[in-house]
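Quick entry between incubations.
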Amino acid sequence: MLKKLSILLIGSIIGFSSCNLEKDVNVELPPYESQKILECYLEPGKPFRALLTKSSPYFSELDFSDLTRILASILEDSAKVQIKFGNQTVVLTNTLSLDQINEKVYNYSSTELVPADYTSEFELEIILQDGKTITSRTKISAPVAIDSVKIEFNQERKARALTYISDNSSTKDYYRRMLNLNSLKDSIPEQDFLADDQILQGSTKLVFGSGFQFEKNDTLYNTILHINKDYFDFLSSVKNAVSNNGNPFGQPGVIYSNLQGTTNALGIFTGFLMVRDTSYVR
Amino acid sequence: MNHIRIGHFLAVIFIFCSYFLNAQVSLSGTVTDAASGETLIGTTIEVLDWSTGTLTNEYGFYTLSGPSVENATIIVSYIGYKTYSIKLNLSKNERLDVKLNPDSEQLEEVVVTANSYKDRINSTEMSTTSVTPLEAKKIPALLGEVDIIKTLQLKPGISSGSEGNSGIFVRGGNQDQNLIVLDEAVVYNASHLFGFFSVFNSDAIKDVKVYKGGFPSQYGGRLSSVIDVKLKEGNNQKFSGTGGIGLISSRLTLEGPIQKEKSSFIVSGRRTYVDLITNSINSANKNKENYNQIPAYHFYDLNTKINFELGKKDRLFLSGYFGRDAFAFSNGNFDFNFYWGNATGTARWNHIFNDKLFSNTTFTYSDYKYNINNKLTGFSFDLKSRIQDANIKSDFYYSPNSQHLIRAGFSATHHKFTVGRLQAGSDDGTIKFGSGLYPEGAELGLYAMDDYSFDQNLKINWGIRLSSFIHKDKTYFNFEPRAGAKYSLNENLSLKASYAKMVQYIHLISNSGVTLPTDIWYPSTQNVAPEISHQVAAGYNYILGDGYLLGHEFYYKWLKNQIDFKDNARLFANNNIEEEFAFGDGYSYGTEIELEKNTGKLTGWIGYTLALVKRGNFPNIMSGRYFSPRYDRRHNLTVVAMYQLTKKWNLSATFVYGSGDLTWLPIGKFSFQDVDGTQINFITPSYGDRNSFRMPSYNRLDVGFVRTFKHRWGESDLTFSAYNVYNRRNVYFYYTDIEFKDVTQGGVTIKVPSKVALKQVSLFPIIPSITWNFKF
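Done. Structure below.
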């Protein structure tokens, strides 16, 4: 009996080692109604511009054979878009524009530049082709300067960057920090995270550090965005949705949006000034 | 209003006291195992001349009252032990301590259960289940690790979490709504290895009892269940040991008398050794370039208990548990350590005032903490959370006559919390940041109950519990009525019903849905009201003959002030954590059927549960609409069979079928361009309603064989088991796999998705295991 059991166990172990525990499956998801998606970032010194797209069922096929088809499948055109602030109204026309430096696309834009106005409220109003509306309000957060960027080497001659900013302890502030390596173009940031100042415990110095991961002659682009709570919540929810998609220990969530109106739109209308420092590892 | 409630409570206490005046002749004492000296819980003591009987309580004590009888026949019986009978002159109060001899013939065949079928027919108790280590050891276990909590998951009404997880969901309750006590000290995180194993070493455990409803008044503080784990007391007759060597851990238990029949000790330890292997691999490869160290992980448990008989009327018990999980990883610049675990301590004093009055006074201390420490060159990061409890409680048992068994007592607990204490900064002190909350609370309970027999057929158990929680200047009071009734239609069939209100003052901060060491506890505060449940249950127990018992119950549970978390809640390092809470309610209902057989060569049970649970009315979640939690399983079927083939061979098999878990899959996608310096994400998931997709059903068959050997020095056995014999690919989770391609147009090249596929991941294929166990 013991001999037979041993044979059974060994056979099972061999079977175990050859197991494939992952496979493709097809599932039928609950019905989904497409939503309008808006990204509109007011950046002082840059033109008023927005990207208005539409969502689709998660497993629906998109035609990604070329850029024209991609854009045709996701862009939401023929809407009337305007932004009001103070006594001014800026109309964003439905024209496809490409920011080749940063490789970004906008389907609504104006030649007028966003003013460095950190006190006025900006009002967005969009009337879609079917007459439904998207509205929102925001203010541009005043920029926070990068005090310094310190490059340190370890014994293996790998470098890290410490980026220091000063926080205003009398206000509740939110930040986005990005660190790009060697290029801003076609680059996924080495670091990209959100922080608020409640962890400072009275200190006014906030430092963002990297690991020892950089080589001599690397170029580091440190970017700090002083952002408002709406953008903090929106971006947190997007990151949470992406990171917890398929994480058995995680909990996804619905995307936060600061858009209102008569259509069920999703997205963000916000303003900030990117503060960037370029450092060289030497 | 609170004064009125206290007045009502005192009036009930007064009514109880009136019973004290109605005294008769009594018989009392304790029942122990003659071979080991262990007290026996649930032993039946019958005085035939009184036509009545009782059971030993959880401390092995019993008391009976009746009219004066000369030459009365007393029978003491417990499954697995030789029945003891004696004739005694009961013309005055008598003390009878009984030592039952194990019936070695029977023990080979039967699974010892706390109550015999007759006792369960006659008891007002319902919605309970119990498991003994002997039962757990016979059932095939994942990786050969006998786990008493996973055995409980095979009982109707008790669901597991995700595959292999030792988390428990009882009648639609959340994981934190289970009160798990080890020798009366609360265990806050009862799992090792992220939930794959429970902290209970079966060698050190004497008995586990679970209440799913019909809660006796002495229990409070959780909504859905009480899991009462009792440690062995230690053999006071002779020195002995048990142990085992398994695939991932080994264990050793030693016990023996300190002073024969007066005092004893037990020490039990268990440790995994995967880290010893990975450390050796790391050492062998340490000089290799580009070698990535394997992180080291281990867990261990240590249980100890000593007890002293201080005289005929007093007994003192001291017990403790200490367990740790440790995960470590380091290289030249990076030193990461993560450890977590429980520590509990219990000092218990049993005192017999007289033949009718028995008391148990306990001091307990519980401590659960986790600590994540990470050191980078020049910087360190330290995150910890902790809950510490100091508790005193006293319980009094009084049996004034054959109709009443009265129990009353109090409990006071001081809770001390450390919630998300984060300390981070540079070694030179120029940079520092952190967070942390340190709330405290006091939880008080006062209770009384009476198990009253109207006649042979009708019995009721009614009681009340007055509970209170104090946090800063906020005080909550709650009246928690409890009631149960039994009516016997004949000696083989009884109907039962119960009602219980439960209140929970401390809450688990976790939105993961599985047991994680980083789950932390938080008290009721000004803004966080206690959770409340009302549960009604009704059912019957029916002895079918030939050793079969059929139990069938229906239940309905209303849940108030339930806590969930807003979407995208920030639960770490957040000093405003209450802003992340959402408050709502819920309900659950279902029916549970169990057919069990605990005598003969073939033993086991078949359990089926049909259940539904919903939560809703959370203003910030799905606009207040109701939704199903992840583990809302409509159907659950378990079949557990143990067969004594010969004196040397035992066979066992377990079959589990359950509706698939619910999961929250994205239903839409959109392109997220983001700001300059980032790349566009074409497949950003968009989630709809929570848990709106049900995964395929779960089913699994496990088999096990035990071969026993006799030696001059003792006994040993080889336990072979195979988990998931037919290699079913049960879904553990889904994830989406996105393949990309480059598209170039007008000099611009971007990466675009070429294929989006949903992948199913399974955790355990067929897993054979072998364990060697010994006993001397």
